[in-house]
């Protein structure tokens, strides 16, 4: 994909930049730079308000079809929006799971009624979602999920446990992968259920991380309920739908993430220049390598954006996950090395007083594990892209 911006695109860029300049003020001024990786605890209520502001002014669902409430914008203009979002220092999104994962999944696999019911709340920023995939015994091996659901009296009754569930404390809904055929194993007999979070059968317990904060959570489902109609795709065929969502998570939605990565790199570079670390030839080489790899990441993300609308990315999405996870973890290490002795001292562990470099370093230790570990990504690439036999890697 050859990404070029014409005059009309650049006019759109000016419109986007002007909107951010006008709206990241007043009640939202404190959100500039807030809520990034390892900082999901920051200004949550204000960031929910920011979602509603984005929705009010039509900045959610930019690429969704107009017939489903979106704006039907080109990939080029979506790229421009992400670039200007990062350039303005706009906050980490609390609605991205709905917009970038569940919404597009419904566009691919959902019924007209499901799209009518669930998409408007995502588009106006009032309905927040979380993802119920990983379990204590089924992290990277998603096919091993043991959460079960049975259909009784017009409702799905769900029992099990999910873990590493981002924003579960804030979400209104969760899309849950559960085993609905009792004797099924592995990829067969799974269903993709839409489950309301505000009900007696669901308990959320935050997980304290290395950063001292708790972006992730455990979710316990004890006879939790979902309506019979709230299954995406056919019952028992949830693996196909779940893989479609994962491809979105590792593919198209990562472009906005790349813009955040660029901002983090710029901060590390600015620190290195300010404290003299950039004069060290070894550090200078690492900074240059990091910058070049970031350009490769951006190119990869742009290529993923070029996939035809409504299609599911293939193994290239696994390549993208493998690449950015390793790069981001390396950036965290570089940030601490650039900080020098000050990077080794935590002002107040657990109370939000870590420096940006310390928070980046601690949070990125998990990048090569969550969302599918590096080992799993390499196996998928070897088997599905290169055609190598199972067990060869």
UniProtKB/TrEMBL annotation:
Transmembrane segments: none annotated. InterPro entries: Acyl-CoA_Oxase/DH_mid-dom (IPR006091), Acyl-CoA_Oxase/DH_mid-dom_sf (IPR046373), AcylCo_DH-like_C (IPR036250), AcylCo_DH/oxidase_C (IPR009075), AcylCoA_DH/ox_N (IPR013786), AcylCoA_DH/ox_N_sf (IPR037069), AcylCoA_DH/oxidase_NM_dom_sf (IPR009100), Mycobact_Acyl-CoA_DH (IPR052161). Residues 236-386 form the Acyl-CoA dehydrogenase/oxidase C-terminal domain. It comes from the Bacteria. Pfam families: Acyl-CoA_dh_1, Acyl-CoA_dh_M, Acyl-CoA_dh_N. Its cofactor is FAD. Residues 8-125 form the Acyl-CoA dehydrogenase/oxidase N-terminal domain. Keywords: FAD, Flavoprotein, Oxidoreductase. Gene3D superfamilies: Acyl-CoA dehydrogenase/oxidase, N-terminal domain, Butyryl-CoA Dehydrogenase, subunit A, domain 2, Butyryl-CoA Dehydrogenase, subunit A, domain 3. The keyword Flavoprotein applies. Residues 130-223 form the Acyl-CoA oxidase/dehydrogenase middle domain. Belongs to the acyl-CoA dehydrogenase family. This is Acyl-CoA dehydrogenase family protein. It comes from Pseudonocardia xishanensis.
